[in-house]
Amino acid sequence: MLRYTLMRLGIFVGCLVVVWGLVYSGLAPRGLGDSNGLWVVLLALVLSAPISFVVLRKERDRASERIVRRVDRAKANLEANRNMEDTADEAARTQGQAQGQAS
């Protein structure tokens, strides 16, 4: 997941540099008043999102598979803990009934 995040950040930074160069060279419009920095960041975000979506598809799928495996493992551990608790509870009840009948 960290790898995907770093790759996505790299694409954003690359787009930011390109947009900054285009705005300051006059090829792309400047923001209104003092909003030029915000304009450059927003334009870089808009450009980097579809690029990341297409270019990082395989890495995103790998990260998703890792997350699914972790969730499945956590579910299995939780179910195992529940079963152990149920078994211990059932054994305690059985023992309590046996002691009640012996008295």
Could you explain the architecture of this structure?
This protein is mainly α. 87% of the residues lie in helices and 0% in strands. It contains three helices and no strands. Helix 1 (2-25) crosses helix 2. The model has no long low-confidence stretch (mean pLDDT 86). The chain crosses the membrane at residues 7-25, 37-56. Residues 79-103 are annotated as: Disordered. InterPro entries: DUF4229.
Which key features would you list for this structure?
103 residues; mainly alpha; 3 helices; single chain
- Uncertain runs are none
Distance between the termini: 61 Å
Please give the radius of gyration in angstroms.
28 Å
Number of strands: 0
Topology as a string of helices (H) and strands (E): HHH
Number of helices: 3
Helix content: over 70%
Largest sheet: none
In what range is the share of β-strand residues? under 5%
Average pLDDT confidence is: 86
Structural class: mainly alpha
Overall outline:
rod-shaped
Transmembrane segments: 7-25, 37-56
InterPro entries: DUF4229
Biased composition (Low complexity): 93-103
Protein name: DUF4229 domain-containing protein
Write the layout of secondary structure elements.
Elements (H helix, E strand, L loop, with lengths): L1 H24 L10 H20 L1 H46 L1
Helix pairs in contact: 1-2
Pfam families: DUF4229
Protein name: DUF4229 domain-containing protein
Keywords: Membrane, Transmembrane, Transmembrane helix
